[in-house]
Amino acid sequence: MSLQRCTEADLAAFRSARIDEMSVARRVARVKSRSLKADTKDRLLRLAVSMVDLTTLEGMDTPDRVRALCHKASRPLAEQPDLPSTAAVCVYPAMVPAAREALGTSSPVGLASVATGFPSGQLALGQRLSEVRWAIDHGATEIDMVISRGRLLTGDWGWVFDEIAATREACGPVVLKVIFETGELGSLETIAGVSQLAIAAGADFIKTSTGKISPAATMPVTFVMLDVIREHYLKTGRMVGMKPAGGIRTAKQALQYLVLVAETLGADWLTNERFRFGASSLLNDLLRQLIRRQEGTYPSPRRISVD
Amino acid sequence: MSRLGIHKTLKMYVGGSFIRSESGRVIAHHSTAGDVMYVPRASRKDLRNTLEIARKAQPGWGGRTPYNKGQILYRIAEMLEDRAGAFPAPKAQVTTAVDRAVHHAGWSDKIVAVLSSINPVSSGHVNYAHLRPVGVVMVLPSAQDGLLGLVEAICAPLLMGNSVIVMVPTELSEVAGALSEVLAVSDVPAGVVNLLMGDVPSVMDTADLLDDLDTLVVGPGTLSPERLTASEQAAARTMRRVIRAPSAEAPTDAMGLGRLAEVQTVWMASGGPGVTSGGGGY
Amino acid sequence: MTMTQDDRPTLKIAGAIEFSPAPEGHPVDIRPHQGHFIDGMFVEGAEEGRFQTIDPATARPLATVAAATAQEIDAAVKAARKAQQGVWGRMSGAERGKFLYRIARRLQERAREFAVLETMDNGKPIRETRDVDVPLAAQHFFYYAGWADKLGYAVPGRTPHPVGVAAQVIPWNFPLLMLSWKIAPALACGNTVVLKPSETTPLSAMRFAQILQEVGLPPGVVNLVNGPGATGALLVGHEGVDKVAFTGSTGVGRHIMRTVAGTKKKLTLELGGKSAHIVYRDAALTQAVEGVIDGIFFNQGHVCCAGSRLLLEASIADEFVERLKIRMQSLRIGNPLDKNTDVGAINSAAQLQRIQHYMDIAEQEGAGIWQGAACPAPSEGFFHLPTLLTGVQQSDTVVREEIFGPVLTVLTFRTPEEAVAKANDSEYGLAAGVWTEKTAKLFGTAHALNAGVVWANGYNLFDPASPFGGVRHSGFGREGGIAGLWPYLEAR
To answer: ipTM exceeding 0.90?
Structure first.
């Protein structure tokens, strides 16, 4: 795949994105007040399970811990074998071999690896790219890269474009998700601009956060990013995916995000090929709510395994 | 052997020019000196033309800075004082009028501060209510108020950024003529202040038909109750503001000046607390 | 219904997920026969002239309502006079304020009940009555309660006095909210009131009278008389009235102004509009789409200040219209009591007919008509799909006249000067909106617009602290804020 290019004019356009925050907040408030049909809720809870990138990104991660995660991802609830698996597991590069071993070669569960010096991205570009290649060589099917926020905030948008394009090239056919760490970017306008930039540089998904800083994913931020995806689609026909990550812990939140997606991008994005949740504890709450809807009781958290 | 004096022909003041009525009609009237003088009698067409001129002049005047408006009002006072002798009226009356012009000159860069507000709305907006000119104001000053009434009729709407059409009572024609000459040398832009003369009730018959006139200020005793009612009824066609003004003895105060303006409320999205309240939202 | 069909990428928004019928279940009993509220008492009213108020979402009757006779109106005005001279006008501002605070609190306590009742009688979505109408009505009383003992600060250089008895006539589009806009400042200033609700939406006002009894408001301070326009005419023409306040159509306002001419009655009129909504190319466009939607589809477009004339900078016009259409496809039209409903019922058959009449004109004028929503409109009741009229001109009837429905006309401009000129090219002057991220252009445009209210990067926002009212054919006088006190004070 050839390296993406952009002109100064493109960069200027990215940097002049305009967002009115008040209006975004009003829009989000409205979406949050929607109430869903019972059977729609069931469908969306199952869909949400299938959209989870089940994540562990800790210094204390071990192959055992990752194996447990892979089991959970493959079969989220033993008592309900017909539930879909999660979209992927998401781990550090060093954990990719263990995850691949646990998942096997024919698993429907994707294997996402953070790379490029996650979470800060503060490594030389060459090292970051070799990390990407290493993860892919060891079985990663998806790469979650971080951008250089320092470069972005000091105005070097071209540099950020190039690093994404270079990572895109290193990924080849492997799915590339680009993490902005929106909590560090300061304004919705910067977030909209960098979303345009990342999409132009070849991102398959754009992703809000590493989960390492607060605020992580929020609905206003997600709305702005979905809006950029929408504009890109309407202009080019290319469908880019979205992954809010961090801070989404409850089924209720997940459903609100799905309504936002439905009302912004429509039915074609209600699939794990175009929408993911980067989360760890969310899955258990989705499962709890599914049980609750089926049985009419409020299950104790203890009913579901902690992984 | 005494020299034969030169009599001044009385003219109206419209669009910065001294004009006779296009109709050529006049009203015979005794001057203060006891001579017969002929006061131009504004026709329908004169009033229509004047309204067009005043309308055209208003945005430029309204757009001047408050400081500039104040300076021009003060210039009127200076010229009035300078030409006190030109008025067929006792000096004291002229100096009272001068002081009135000075008083109003000081308002132009303050009145908006007195009557405007920042409104603490419960949403993330900067909300302010400020004043905009109403547009073209026609004033019927009371004959009893003399020169002071004319000066009040002009200065109050003027300082609020409006253009003015003054319908001069016949008794004040001579005074109005002298005042027009003051205005002509006071840097008041052409068309911003216009003085028409003639028969007030018949001019009002026309004024009632002019939909583009924004506000009518009626001085005490200038219209019969029936005539005033007719004008108020006619005003309903366009929601024209009709103000029954008090005597000019006291200057139009802040609240009174406020009626020569429109309150405009502006909501500026600013973010901050309560960003989602304050309205519908889809 | 026409939808553009071509091979450009399209989004499948409508129906992407189903929303449940989520009807608000709060029970509300409605007395089957409504009369008037005079001198602190509910009176049954005459049988002659009794009419029905209906639920516009189902076209089913909710109650019958009496039409006030001349004697009843006279009794109401006399009760108001007696209360003004005997009690209310003599009471200290602080005490008057405490009554208004009590009213505000009661409205908050019974908010859900009022929201449901209002939605049933008016047809507007429960989301709006719950989140906008009722809370704002309560806030309005709370706001003016605080003014009652501070009136001197509102009239610099003068001393405030009450005007006397106010005759107030309100419309059907925000029944309770308009009642609060009228009654709260009037009472704060020491006036007493005779108010006539709209004949299609009398129920919330009559329930409000219960609150007045509950809080112990002295009899006669607020009186309510029901009836059609003729009742309103009798009321504003009554010689015992000192002040007339009307919100409604420009036609009726004009008639009232003629009636009041030659009398000493003070008058405020809050009338129609055809408000311009300007979107510059340097606006935050997605949010501007939201603003435009808020501007015209809020309350089915039954808003005097609705942003019904969209003015788009030519270079973004086509794209913007496409975005509007996409957004409109997520608007849910239907049962107003459903919490998911965005666009509710048109208030009456007559109003629906009027909108349809303008749709016929639009067709004759060659407008492109596009309608869309997330779901079909219900088959019973009175509904009108959100509508765009494109390809229209400044000279078209649908661009010049107020439609008072969910119908947006779309025009373009090339320069800011042209935008302002076109926006100001209207006999009306109630409100306007402007969208740009360029600050100087935002302020410059806002101040150049001949309108009483301008929203900059927003639309249809209301707050008791914010004066509201128009210029030219949109009326005069302000409601809300300090300026909202002036019409109710005799300042000497």
So the answer is: yes
